[in-house]
Amino acid sequence: xxxxxxxxxxxxxxxxxxxxxxxxxxxxxxxxxxxxxxxxxxxxxxxxxxxxxxxxxxxxxxxxxxxxxxxxxxxxxxxxxxxxxxxxxxxxxxxxxxxxxxxxxxxxxxxxxxxxxxxxxxxxxxxxxxxxxxxxxxxxxxxxxxxxxxxxxxxxxxxxxxxxxxxxxxxxxxxxxxxxxxxxxxxxxxxxxxxxxxxxxxxxxxxxxxxxxxxxxxxxxxxxxxxxxxxxxxxxxxxxxxxxxxxxxxxxxxxxxxxxxxxxxxxxxxxxxxxxxxxxxxxxxxxxxxxxxxxxxxxxxxxxxxxxxxxxxxxxxxxxxxxxxxxxxxxxxxxxxxxxxxxxxxxxxxxxxxxxxxxxxxxxxxxxxxxxxxxxxxxxxxxxxxxxxxxxxxxxxxxxxxxxxxxxxxxxxxxxxxxxxxxxxxxxxxxxxx
Length: 434
Known about the structure:
Elements lengths: L34 E5 L6 E6 L2 E4 H6 L6 H5 L6 H5 L2 H15 L9 H4 E3 L4 E3 L7 E5 L2 H11 L14 E5 L4 E3 L4 E2 L2 E5 L5 E5 L3 E2 L2 E7 L18 E8 L2 E2 H11 L9 E3 L4 E2 L7 E2 L15 H6 L1 E2 L1 E8 L1 H6 L4 E7 L7 H8 L11 E3 L14 H4 L5 E2 L5 E2 L7 E8 L7 E11 L8
Parallel strand pairs: 6-22, 8-16, 9-26
Antiparallel strand pairs: 1-2, 1-5, 2-3, 3-4, 6-7, 10-11, 12-15, 13-14, 13-22, 14-16, 14-17, 18-19, 20-21, 20-25, 23-24, 25-26
């Protein structure tokens, strides 16, 4: 069975001696404690935990004797893969240690200057070395909206209601938030039938949740639904950048390829599964019911997560005018047709060995409301989007910055944030002449 849910680390009355963590609306209160990898100039990369507007340096905390054990040692490495490998029991124990040392009244406050790094001084890195990246398509609304253009009578892929559809994407082009995304070159057929090669004219974002894998199963050994939740180390934000003109041309033979491998942006902080226990909710009822290998009592009662996700745009003109980013998408992850546990169980159902640090994308998190359209391909079905300053967008232009945020919210729980996943679109590189 999945690990136990709430414990003392989720207590809504808990407060931290880091004052900024107690501010209303803070992304990183003591009930959150997301983990990531950071460094500073001249220093080695190592694990850190976000608390308010600071980063708890786990290496410094361990050297000061404030945390101990296998998980504390693993978290001092330059990637989180080792911590992910030893499993969620160990990372949950580390969470309890960190919660205690950051709570009001803890003696660790006297060492604040040694163990805390102001967040602006921390350069965030990719949380883990990603060996494999699989991207799912789990939103009914996303599939139905875009599928109407292909086949109005049968908009959903044939297998959508039977299994969580996915494809194997490119791990090497996964990048941490803040790194620019170069407009890709590619080939597609224009409406007049002529073939074209050049910079994409239909660059899009896709608002997704990142699912980070813990533990490992041997090749040939499936992961049943009873164990699937414990294989999820945590969650983050993921932008599955998409070149729609290239994608439309290459999709029919074998599915997404160059339209997706151009770049994938992920947020630096991983919100652990333990932190999200108070936000577990029942998923939508599946019709027809999932086959037994994709079903469990726990999944029916706790498989979804109440996470409000947003995408915003900041254009060059908005930036020059000092304007705030304009919201494009406001969607709820709890409405996804397939859950993260079902994605894990299906992925490993053929014996595929999921590795520590493997990355799954949830697929575009679109909801039924117009505000829940989670990519420009959906938003543009009714025409270009009008921005508050009078600009319009059908697709992303050079210099546009896309910013993802998310917040888990539930009655009786302190809301927790995910930080940001953001990137600016850079011009396409000049094509080599020789």
